[in-house]
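Technical annex, item 7. During the second reporting period the consortium partners agreed on a shared format for inverse folding records so that results from different sites could be compared directly. Each record opens with the tokenized structure and is followed by the designed sequence. A conforming record, contributed by the partner at site C, is shown below for reference.
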């Protein structure tokens, strides 16, 4: 049972777009509301895109970039908090974390696809 669970997690980290689609499809069937299904899929699969990007960076460049990713996440959160402070003069941390999570989905899903293309091109020429 444990091997099956680990294999499923490894598969979805390797192909997070498939996990996003599955979560979207299931939540659309359950809630019958497309935007709620999209938000749920984004919230649940963001971590897969972060791990996938981390692993692909390790495979392509043979270095760990965890510290850079953490600094990037903290910097984005600080920027969101500063923008929130300047526009609304009240900082709501849960809103800032929610915005960070959505920005991370966009950033890491885009970087996932770009790194996949870089990996394919690099394999073709080596």
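Designed sequence (site C submission):
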């Amino acid at each position: 049972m444990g091997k099956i669970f680990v294999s499923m997690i490894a598969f979805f980290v390797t192909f997070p777009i498939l996990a996003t689609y599955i979560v979207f499809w299931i939540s659309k069937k359950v809630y019958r509301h497309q935007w709620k299904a999209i938000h749920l899929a984004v919230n649940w699969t963001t971590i897969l895109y972060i791990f996938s990007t981390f692993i692909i960076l390790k495979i392509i460049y043979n270095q760990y970039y965890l510290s850079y990713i953490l600094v990037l996440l903290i910097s984005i959160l600080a920027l969101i908090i500063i923008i929130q402070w300047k526009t609304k003069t009240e900082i709501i941390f849960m809103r800032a974390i929610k915005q960070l999570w959505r920005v991370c989905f966009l950033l890491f899903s885009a970087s996932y696809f770009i790194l996949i293309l870089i990996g394919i091109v690099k394999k073709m020429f080596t």
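DSSP finds five helices and no strands in the chain. Residues 31 and 57 are 36 Å apart (CA to CA). All partners now use this format for quarterly exchanges.
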